[in-house]
UniProtKB/TrEMBL annotation:
Protein name per its UniProtKB record: FAD-binding PCMH-type domain-containing protein
Keywords: FAD, Flavoprotein, Oxidoreductase
Domain FAD-binding PCMH-type, residue spans: 119-302
Pfam families attached to this UniProt entry: FAD_binding_4
InterPro entries per the UniProt record, alphabetical: FAD-bd_PCMH, FAD-bd_PCMH-like_sf, FAD-bd_PCMH_sub2, FAD-linked_Oxidoreductase, Oxid_FAD_bind_N
Amino acid sequence: MSRFKPLRYHVVLAAVYASFVNATYLPGRSCKAFPGTAYWPSETQWNHFNDSLSGRLLQATPPAAVCHPDWPAYDPSACSDVKSDWSVYEYHSENPVSIMWDQFTNDTCLPKEEFPCSARGYPAYVVNATTSEHVKLGVDFARTYDIRLVVKNTGHDYMGRSIAPGGLSIWTHHLNSIHHHVGPFKLDDCDTSIPGNAVTVGAGAQMYDIYSATDAFNETIVGGGGKSVGIGGYITGGGHSILAPRFGLAADQVLQMEMVTPAGKILTVNENQHPDLFWAMRGGGGSTFGVLTSVTLKTYPTPKLLSTAWMAVTDPNAPFLYDVIAYALSQFPSMGDAGLSGYTFITSRLPNPVPSPGAPEELAGVLGQFVLQETENVQSLQNILNPINQTLKERWLGAVQVITSTRPYSSFLAWFEDHYDQGTAGNSSYLVSRLLDRHALESDEAALANAVKEGMSISGGLGAYIVSGKGVHDASPRGGSNAVNPGWRTTYVHTRFPAIQRNRKDRGY
Ligand SMILES: Cc1cc2nc3c(=O)[nH]c(=O)nc-3n(C[C@H](O)[C@H](O)[C@H](O)COP(=O)(O)OP(=O)(O)OC[C@H]3O[C@@H](n4cnc5c(N)ncnc54)[C@H](O)[C@@H]3O)c2cc1C
Ligand SMILES: *[C@@H]1O[C@H](CO)[C@@H](O)[C@H](O)[C@H]1NC(C)=O
Ligand SMILES: *[C@@H]1O[C@H](CO)[C@@H](O)[C@H](O)[C@H]1NC(C)=O
Ligand SMILES: *[C@@H]1O[C@H](CO)[C@@H](O)[C@H](O)[C@H]1NC(C)=O
Ligand SMILES: *[C@@H]1O[C@H](CO)[C@@H](O)[C@H](O)[C@H]1NC(C)=O
Ligand SMILES: *[C@@H]1O[C@H](CO)[C@@H](O)[C@H](O)[C@H]1NC(C)=O
Ligand SMILES: *[C@@H]1O[C@H](CO)[C@@H](O)[C@H](O)[C@H]1NC(C)=O
């Protein structure tokens, strides 16, 4: 009999503990609370939570519910807008729960009347946060009631981490203030002053808004290619940029951050205060160590850019196609060392973008968009590219065409206005990517040709971005280091294979 006493004692203790923290959490339960289960907070508890947030709690509705007659939100004219907006990044970033890629809701509510719509793929509630205190309240509520917590900023995430079925979502989109500082920047609570100008932005601030605000001071941040990508996921993920080969990654530019920890503490972190969190939040991954509420980034005088569209193309059926591509890729480290950066798209078959009588209807090869910074001198660009053009022409006896067109830009923003990422959302997009260093690119052209051929057989296209180089290799992030994947410190090229899922016939794909 007495053997059971300790057990009862623990049961009583657990009950006391549970009532003490006002939680339905039961020790040993392995699943989070889910809508419809006994552990889910009551209506009254949600209402109290909403009151504590001054009414900023939203009930989540799948955005495409307007297309489905069995939903109260059904509205055919709103549906036709959602249908046409579904491919637009900004539509999803401005919606409290919508995300760019369909597969992360398991296609549970698409803007297609012919397929059923359910709320199963979406969070239950959303905190529309505008202050760190709102974020803290959300984190505390989710912890207390053992609810799955998710942070959604824009929904650009390629791994679906900005959405969770039945969860509580903290929407950081409206934490979007932008304040420019004329240096030196003084860190919070200590005597360290960091030379140079800076900008403090809310975690929801988006690339284009930050570029525009800093451009008013003839400055720029090291930022990414998508207009609506948000700083929250970008900075915590490391952040590559066409400017990074010169200045380092975006995470290398961080001077200070404000964040909310899983325990609900609002902290200002820098090289002196909570240096471990400061290290981890710069590259350690979105929604991992806490919720970022704001970040201070070093700014740079905006560079003048010489921009060139460069195509090295041949017949898609040419037996040497992958040799041509591998040769071009093998030149990227030396192009990078010479100051060139940019984005290239490698294709095994594309309609000729400049069709003309007699010209081939389809092309294959490398289509690049390069920049050289702080110069207007076309000769300096030609010095880099001419030897490569020459080899391409001579080695394949004229079967490779090199087409270039060059123009100068007076600022990074001016360049960005023409060259931002103009892709579309609204498909099921899975990405596979690899970081390639000098050895991978230069040491064995035949092996590289085989690897590219193998990869392209899956997707037909490959992005190869020169977004790393000397500036990233030699970066000196504050505090000595950060959590960015160390592979970046020897990388020249970030490659990505886009793969579109087409196997959901039951959802029209
Ligand atoms: C069109 C396009 C262009 C891109 N261009 C580039 C580029 O040039 N360079 C580059 O490096 N990347 C680029 N990316 C990738 C992009 O940086 C990542 O998808 C990034 O995670 C997006 O962050 P977000 O906050 O906008 O999106 P979200 O999907 O909302 O968030 C992404 C992740 O970060 C988490 N998160 C968001 N905000 C916070 C926060 N405040 N605190 C803690 N966690 C948070 C989310 O929970 C999620 O895990 C691009 C993506 C797209 C779709
Ligand atoms: C939260 O309160 C606001 C204002 O009172 C109200 O408009 C909103 O519907 C409430 N949210 C929820 C989920 O009940
Ligand atoms: C991807 O989205 C675009 C734009 O919405 C659409 O035209 C295209 O057909 C889609 N592709 C697939 C494979 O679904
Ligand atoms: C996703 O949808 C498919 C088909 O409707 C279903 O079989 C599967 O269980 C769903 N997956 C999840 C994780 O809900
Ligand atoms: C979220 O909050 C912002 C800022 O207060 C407000 O403009 C916006 O309308 C709110 N969004 C929703 C869906 O309530
Ligand atoms: C930015 O540069 C322009 C052009 O050189 C100049 O006219 C303007 O005064 C500068 N603005 C600031 C804020 O320095
Ligand atoms: C190679 O490209 C450059 C610059 O893009 C162009 O100006 C030049 O004429 C080309 N050179 C050769 C040899 O084709």
